[in-house]
Amino acid sequence: MSDTLLLNQDGRPLRMLPPSTLSWQDAVKALWLDKVVVIKNYNDWVVRSQKVVLPVPSIVMTKEYILPQLGVNFNRKMVYLRDEYTCQYCGCEFEVDDLTLDHVVPKSQGGKLEWDNVVTACTSCNFMKGADLMRPLNEPRQPNYWEMARKAREYVRFSMKDPAWAEYIGVEYSDDRAA
């Protein structure tokens, strides 16, 4: 089953990290409760009840403006994005499955799991570093929302459920599943 892209009243996603979505069931419910306007429906996909046939929305827009939350959550995906999927020790770019998080100051020496002490590392460099102190190529720091939103557009590592989303997210659509 697919998700529905949720846009604010101004036509932008409520958030970009990741882009704001609803389950198709929640989108139909919001539509039924008159809280959203449908921008685009999925082609040839409807839900049926005894008396109603309703196209499933691909993109919806809120009827009221919602003040965006502009924070960046600390998690593995956001650290990888901040570091642009690049090992901060050898400088090579990797796929997500080949990356790890590394404590610049190891936990054994009092290092904490926070923006200012964690970097992206490939498994080889992380293993070689172990509990030693090594200086990463870029000092870890907490990023701001706008920097991360820009990077999210450059490094789209999620699959859009509908090519029409690309126009609203600000990226070019590519169907990796065709390969």
Describe the structure.
The radius of gyration is 20 Å and the shape is elongated. It has helices at residues 24-32, 76-82, 123-129, 145-154, 165-169; strands at 3-7, 21-23, 36-48, 53-62, 99-103, 118-122. The chain contains 5 helices and 6 strands; from the N terminus they run ββαββαββααα. The protein has 179 residues and is an alpha+beta fold. The protein folds into 2 domains: 3-68 and 155-178, no CATH class; 76-129, DNA Binding (I), subunit A (Orthogonal Bundle), CATH 1.10.30.50. The strands form 2 sheets. It has a 4-stranded mixed beta sheet, covered by helices on one side. The protein has a two-stranded antiparallel sheet with strand order 5-6.
Determine the number of helices (DSSP H or I, runs of at least 4 residues). 5
* Adjacency order of strands in the biggest sheet: 2-1-4-3
Number of domains: 2
Tell me the distance between the termini. 21 Å
Please give the radius of gyration in angstroms.
20 Å
Tell me the β content: 15-25%
Strand element count: 6
Sequence stretches where pLDDT stays below 50 over 5 or more residues? none
The assigned structural class equals alpha+beta
- Return the string of H and E elements: EEHEEHEEHHH
Helix content: 10-25%
Overall form: elongated
Quick check: average pLDDT? 88
Largest sheet: 4 strands, mixed
